[in-house]
């Protein structure tokens, strides 16, 4: 075990179904993330990256068969986890509207996880959580439909952080937002990570987002890790695997030659 690692994944396999009909969503994936680091999982839709993230979060459906090893700060991440361990890892989902209960106020959305984990001074925690994501306390008694997409995602981030986790899992945190709002949310996440010494694991199909947010990444295809590299190599267009090179070219805009290779 790497003593500096916050997250370690070794030989992770995730399958849905049994026997010949089983769908193997993830095949022998592995990586590690240093404490306080930011790590990206990149690939096209269906590559298995979100399944890896959900396996880490422990939110896969009961039908999923999970093998391999996942650890956080050296502690095994099993299917059933103690409350103290669950508190240390939180997830921000892709759709900020779908992940917030439409009939609950922001006050209840933020207060509920704090109550579940037995925290005190919930009212002041809610106020601090709102200001921490750039919203004032007037948002406390609004409903999700009264918020813009960017504001809803700020609430989702506040909900994840109100119980003071060490690790935050980010599933395409800006893909459902307008382009004009995406940079604001990414900069917010970067600030929060610095201020709170958080460890990020980020899933995205957008290499530009990953290069802005992460120091290192793995590229996934058909459930397998095809390449691991740091962002410096990505920025200098030095990936080794042909699939990574095609993703990089595609992220720069339409390329007839790149498109013909898929």
CATH class categorisation of the domain at 1-81 and 169-174 and 201-262: Alpha Beta
Q: Quote the beta fraction.
A: 25-35%
- Percent helix, as a range, is 25-40%
Poorly predicted runs: 254-262
What integer is the average pLDDT?
A: 89
Global geometry: globular
Q: Give a count of the beta strands, DSSP E runs of length 2 or more.
A: 10
Compressed to H and E, one letter per element, the order equals: EEEHEEHEHHHEHEHEEHHH
For the record, give the distance between the C-alpha atoms at the N and C termini, rounded to a whole number: 38 Å
| Backbone CA Rg | 19 Å
Briefly, what is this?
This protein has 262 residues and is of the alpha/beta class. It is built from ten helices and ten strands.
Key phrases:
262 residues; alpha/beta; Rossmann fold; 6-stranded mixed sheet; 4-stranded antiparallel sheet; 10 strands; 36% helix
Q: How would you characterize this protein structure?
A:
- The strands form 2 sheets. A 6-stranded mixed β-sheet has the order 6-7-8-3-9-10, with helices on both faces. It has a 4-stranded antiparallel β-sheet with strand order 2-1-4-5, with helices on one face.
- The chain has a domain at 1-81 and 169-174 and 201-262: Rossmann fold (3-Layer(aba) Sandwich), CATH 3.40.50.300.
- The longest helix is centred in the last third of the chain and has 18 residues, at 179-196.
- Residues 254-262 have low confidence and may be disordered.
- α3 (106-116) packs across α4, α4 (122-132) crosses α5 and α5 (149-161) packs parallel to α6.
- It is built from 10 helices and 10 strands.
- It is α/β, with parallel strands linked by helices.
